[in-house]
Amino acid sequence: MNASDLLANAFAMPVTSPSYPKGPYRFVNREFLTITYRTDMEALRRVVPEPLEIPEPLVKYEFIRMPDSTGFGDYTESGQVIPVTLDGVAGGYVHSMFLNDDAPIAGGREIWGFPKKLADPALRVEKDTLVGTLDVGSVRVATGTMGYKHRALDHDAVLKGFEAPNFMLKVIPHVDCTPRICELVRYYTKDVTLKGAWEGPAGLELHQHALAPVAELPVREVVSAVHLMTDLTLGLGEVVHDYLPAKG
C-alpha cells in the first residue's frame, strides 16, 4: 500500500477493515428517556472543562434506544449530559456514555470524542411504565422510570431544543501516552423529525461503580422527564477550543 492509497482510506481504524463506514449517520425511530435532575455544583465543576460554563446544577440522564442507525446497527445507550453555555449560547456537555455495540463506540470516540464505554443499557415498556436501566456486567448502575405517555408535549418547543449545540472533550494519546489531541468539540443534530413527545412523573437511582461513576453526580431532586421518538441525523463536529499549546 503506497502513501497516497493509505491516506485515501485513512478515515478509521483498522485501515483495511474499518469498524464503521463514513457518515453521515441517520437514526430512525431513535427513542429517548431523558430525566433531568438537580445535583451538586461542586461535583459539576470537577468534571466540566473550561471554557464551558455551568448555569445551574442540573444533569440530564439519558436512556436512548437506537434500533436502526446507519453503519452502527441496533443498539442502546445510556449516560449523562450536563447543561452548559459557551459564549452565552446554551448547549449540553456530554459527560458519560455507556452502550452495547462496538461500531458506535469506535466511531463515536474516534470522530467526535464521545466518552463511550462498553456496558449493557436497556430501555423498555413495562405495563404502564417506561423503564431504563444500565448494567455493567452483573452490577446495576442506573435505573430510570417514567409514567408512560402521561402528557403530550408541544412539538415546536421540543424541536427547538434539538437546535442547541452539544460539546465533548476529545482526547487521543500520542504513542508515549502524552496527549496528541486534546480539544473541545461541538456538534449539532440535524434533519430532526419528531414522531412523539411526552412528559410524566419520573424516578432515578444511580449506584456507585468504580468504572462507571455516574453516581459522582448525585441525584438531589428529579426535576422533569421526557420521552421522545425521533428520526435524526448526527452531524459531524468542529473544534471550538484546543487545549494544547500551538506548535511552532
Automatic annotation (TrEMBL):
Keywords attached to this Swiss-Prot or TrEMBL record, sorted alphabetically, are: Decarboxylase, Lyase, Schiff base
Q: Which is one GO molecular function term here?
A: acetoacetate decarboxylase activity
Judging by the UniProt lineage, the source's domain of life is Bacteria
User: Keyword Metal-binding on this protein?
Assistant: no
Q: Record keywords: Lyase included? A: yes
A Pfam family per the record: ADC
Extract the InterPro entries matched here. Answer: Acetoacetate_decarboxylase, Acetoacetate_decarboxylase_bac, ADC_dom_sf
Catalytic activity field: acetoacetate + H(+) = acetone + CO2
EC code(s) of this entry: 4.1.1.4
Q: Which residues form the active site?
A: 116 (schiff-base intermediate with acetoacetate)
Please report which protein family the annotation says this sequence is part of. Belongs to the ADC family.
- Function description: Catalyzes the conversion of acetoacetate to acetone and carbon dioxide.
**Protein name per Swiss-Prot or TrEMBL:** Acetoacetate decarboxylase
Organism per entry: Sagittula marina
